[in-house]
# Entry
Amino acid sequence: MTVRKAWILATAAVGAALSFVMLLVVGVYVVAGNLVSGFGNGTVGLARNAVPAAYASIVQKWGNLCSAINPALLAAQLYQESGFNPNAKSPAKAEGIAQFIPGTWAIHGIDGNGDGRADVWDPRDAIPSAASYDCKLASYVKDAPGNLTDNMLAAYNAGAYAVIRYGGVPPYAETQNYVKTITTLAKSFAAPVRRVDPSKQAAGAIYFAQKKLGTPYLWGGDGTPDQGGRFDCSGLTKAAYETVGVTLPRVANDQYNAGPHPKRNELLPGDLVFFSDDLTNSRAIRHVGVYVGGGYMIDAPRTGAVIRFDPIDTPDYFGATRVTEDGAKALPTTV
# Structure
């Protein structure tokens, strides 16, 4: 729920291949000790293609409007609100990519593209308006103790008066969760400035996936008994991470936002790897697999095939996500 909604009115593999995977399962923790964290200080840029190309330059520009926000944080808010859908409309009458309700838009909507009108349905206006609105809220709570960004997000959710009254993020569970959700989600939209931490759950996810090698593919399959234990691509990755306590969204393009994005030469076993016919837009992702090292993944490829090892270095390789528990929890249930 948004502040605008709540204040003003989320080939079957052979035995040798299995042994190869089990070595990777053990080895992933050895590698883990040699890496450092990835969401560091400095100028925050956007992860490659995490934001649809049509909006990336706007988010990058307006995400630097004031010190309380950054491009990744602004991207996280837009994804949380609408999934980058410029035509989104909620039952609460929130409209557009940034989900403004009419009353708030009347006050805070700006003409971001300079065409002489402020149009809530035009991302070139709505995204700048969202950034401007964030910065306006930040100006209201700039003297409150604590982190300015956290206080801005709290004001977005609960109102500036509540932040001022409590001297920071107010003790409301919904507001505290909103602040954590957006700041966590922002990490999946930020370009890491150093290598990102390995996933603690990676080995378990690989172990599950390798046990399913040879299982026939089923479109929409979640591996349930009535489906004969069969999976499609995102059903397999979802089930693999569920066995280690991480709940991912059902579809691949949302799973992409469950953590930071390592580069191709930084991949570790357990990372999710993604594929798309549009390499400029994460919302167009159509396939996902579990990376096992050596340039290979375990995936459920298509109807008529079985869960198997496949190479990842294909023309439609989009990128990867290092799943984190907090990252998965931060994802909206519907976008």
